[in-house]
Amino acid sequence: MSALAQQAPVDAAEIFANAVRAIFSRWTLLRLAVDQGWADGDEAQKADALVTRVLEMVAPSVRRVPDESEIADVLHDAIESTFNAQAEDGSVEEISRTILRLRAECSAGNVANALVYVQQQASSLDASQGREDEAGEAEEVVVAPAPAPLPIIDEDGFETVQRRRNPRRACAP
User: Fold this and answer.
1) Fewer Cβ in 10 A, N or C end of the chain?
2) What separation in angstroms does the CA of 162 have from each of 35, 36, 75, 156, 167?
3) In whole angstroms, what is the distance from residue 9 CA to residue 60 CA?
4) Which range has the worst mean pLDDT, 52-56, 70-74, 124-128?
5) Nearest Cα residue to 140 out of 125, 124, 128
């Protein structure tokens, strides 16, 4: 028997679900919300519930795949209502796009990109298991938040106010 025939079959749905979990575990806003206690208790459980909700929306077994804006709406609503924050950095839309792209790839049997996300999560977890200094004591690893974007100043010296694009509030025809 060849080595290829001896390998277990690839479970694309499981790999996809693990990739989605990896994406959420690396989302800076969600990590800060959990680490800083922005949900008034049970932050980790609330973050897990959000991941589960999104996974249920995009599971391979669902009849109708949601579009990017539907996933983005769920993420915006959860961040605002559960964690008392706003995602104005475009991360929600990027996560929504990435999840749908990975879903399509995994549904077609191409799990290579999904595995990259899973492996990146595994390597980041290995690296953050705690470092020890020379005395053998655990060293705390501090993650700094991303800097705020620089303001846009027009030729008259006034700062341009940038509005957040919120597709949920758009009027339907």
Assistant:
1) C
2) 28, 27, 21, 17, 15
3) 17
4) 124-128
5) 128
